[in-house]
Amino acid sequence: MTTTTVGVLRETAPGERRVALVPELVPAAVRLGATVLVEPGAGALAGHHDADYLAAGAAVVGRAELLRRADVLLGIHPPNVDPVRDLRPGQVLAALVRPHRIPYLVRQWADRAVTAIGLDLAPDLPDAYPLDAEASQGRAAGYRAVLLAATRLDRCLPPWGTTDGLFDPVRVLVVGAGHAGLQAIDTAHRLGALVRAVEPRRRERAAVAALGAELLDLPGLPPVADDRDLWDTLDRERRPDWVAGLAEAVAHHDVVVTALDLPGRTPPVLLRTAAVERMRPGSVLVDLAAGPEGGTVEGVRPDSAALVGDGVTVIGAGELAAQVPATASLAYGHNALALLDRLLRGEEPAADPVLGPMLVTDGGMVRHEPTRRFLRDATALAGLP
User: Fold this and answer.
1) Rounded to two decimals, what is the model's pTM?
2) How far apart are CA 281 and CA 155, in angstroms?
3) Among residues 87, 107, 212, 349, which one has the fewest Cβ atoms lying within 10 Å of its Cβ?
4) What is the predicted pLDDT for the residue at 1?
């Protein structure tokens, strides 16, 4: 596949401040052989003006022209456009697709023969890491989650000294040590908190230990190999054992960050309201998995904060990476640049061991298996052929 014209879209989602490609990376895209088009105002909320893109070698054009000319469309979120009117067969669309949230739009892309690539679906391969936007944006979110909790907490995280000794350190529990969770652990540790983590995956457990945090093992939640085994474990009959253990652990911490978000899956509810109410008044819980389909805390809503029980603050994170748009956009831009590098090599995406698993649609088909399965089941339920 040969693509030469790249279009950088302006985000339209409420509260979104990131941009998919920053001006300083435009020359690198040009060196790869791409012509870069940028929609007016695309980078403004991240501190990058149209003049910056022009100086870097990009052209600033209106959305209609960009959609018409671009071979590859880059965005943070899937663009709010009509697939039939605004997209064309063979066009590549790359974003944080999260296909399980938009299955019917995915089917429209397939019907239009658009190649959609999820930068949130990079496989667990060394060559895929430069493309992994789920990782880069997760790290930004994990960092921001701890700072957000610190601003709501009724205590200071560092154990400041007095003439009579030290205040007790703030106790932080991080549930899930993926990219976001590990960054939350590291940030809380650097701020002087006493950090514990719940994480059954073996590789992530090693990373937790390397950061100096304490692993908290729960009954009924044994170590597992990877994400697939973790998902199976979440549905086992012994789940009540470790969920009860998690509720007990949460009650003894001042800050809890739940970061157990498996890409492509609806977050499982791990903490009920009754468990959160047992936390000390003035403590804070941040649910990084909170999104349109819910979160890992009962009743949580994205981009919101609520008081539970006797003064426990529960925060539904939503898109926390968007709150640090300069850093998050630069990181995402490097992911997008790595994607362009692979696309411009000319190999068919489906044959590429990195791009193949990231395909949501290609060749007129839905390639993302969970989404394809959902659409098949929905069609059967409706009695359609």
Assistant:
1) 0.91
2) 11
3) 212
4) 45
